[in-house]
């Protein structure tokens, strides 16, 4: 017992260690910093200082991802979720905010435009960009899947967090499954706010330029609520969402401006 308490006292604060490790990153020693992030998190967990472990892993993941160290960042985000499980952290908005902050740090990969397919250098550049994009998607997906499993075990909803589910599904290729998930959440997660969840899902697809899946999502949801005898939210927000999809299909700027005037809140 005394030895266990001594370990807790000897460990310095996460804030102090975060600052020291950041110096290694600034010097370009990403590998050394990675080992320190992992080592300190293990020691904090052994000392049952789970919040310190979360803090150092979140900081490490964000710092590594900001510096383009995708593999290092991806490793730390998995350890972050494992620390949530070991510490038996229940779902709350603070934890979800932490997860979203990490997710948003994953670097975006820009695919080169206007390349000559007959040029070997251009094709090599394109191949490398696609490879980097694939790695990013796989890393994000792995992180979100792990986070959803944590939520199922320690959260309030049997099927996982709606926020995390949304980020996971819009990056996937199955809008019909996403529709089933949203229908299952209706009336259970945010009573009276089903329209917000649906509109958010549509806008997330549209933000990625994916009009096709946004339409599939809405059409599939309408079919499923009918068969389940659930009422589709008859709100102005749903009207706006439907009109927006119709307007985008027609690429009609005048109609879009009319919508802005009609539904200005």
Automatic annotation (TrEMBL):
Alphabetized UniProt keyword annotations: Cytoplasm, Transport
Record's subcellular location: Cytoplasm, Cytosol
This protein's GO CC annotations: cytosol
One BP term from GO: protein insertion into ER membrane
Domain of life: Eukaryota
Protein's UniProt name: Golgi to ER traffic 4 homolog
Protein family according to the UniProt entry: Belongs to the GET4 family.
Source organism of this protein record: Olea europaea subsp. europaea
Record carries keyword Cytoplasm: yes
InterPro entries assigned to the protein according to its UniProt record, in alphabetical order: GET4, TPR-like_helical_dom_sf
Pfam families associated with the record: GET4
Keyword Transport: yes
């Amino acid at each position: 017992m005394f030895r266990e308490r001594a370990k807790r006292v000897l460990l310095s604060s996460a804030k102090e260690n975060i600052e020291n490790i950041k110096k290694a990153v600034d010097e370009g020693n990403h590998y050394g910093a990675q080992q320190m992030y992992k080592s300190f998190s293990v020691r904090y967990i052994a000392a049952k200082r789970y919040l310190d472990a979360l803090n150092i892993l979140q900081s490490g993941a964000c710092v590594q991802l900001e510096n383009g160290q995708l593999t290092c960042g991806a490793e730390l985000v998995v350890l972050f979720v494992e620390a949530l499980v070991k510490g038996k952290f229940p779902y709350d908005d603070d934890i979800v905010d932490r997860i979203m902050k990490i997710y948003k740090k994953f670097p975006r990969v820009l695919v080169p435009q206007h390349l000559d397919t007959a040029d070997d250098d251009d094709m090599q550049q394109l191949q490398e960009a696609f490879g980097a994009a694939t790695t990013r998607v796989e890393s994000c997906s792995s992180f979100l899947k792990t986070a959803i499993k944590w939520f199922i075990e320690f959260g309030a909803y049997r099927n996982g967090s709606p926020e995390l589910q949304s980020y996971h599904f819009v990056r996937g290729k199955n809008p019909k499954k996403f529709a089933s998930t949203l229908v299952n959440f209706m009336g259970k997660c945010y009573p009276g706010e089903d329209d917000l969840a649906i509109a958010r899902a549509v806008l997330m697809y549209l933000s990625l330029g994916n009009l096709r899946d946004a339409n599939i999502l809405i059409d599939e949801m309408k079919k499923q609520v009918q068969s389940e005898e659930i009422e589709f939210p008859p709100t102005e927000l749903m009207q706006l969402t439907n009109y927006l999809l119709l307007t985008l299909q027609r690429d009609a700027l005048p109609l879009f401006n009319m919508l802005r005037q009609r539904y200005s809140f």
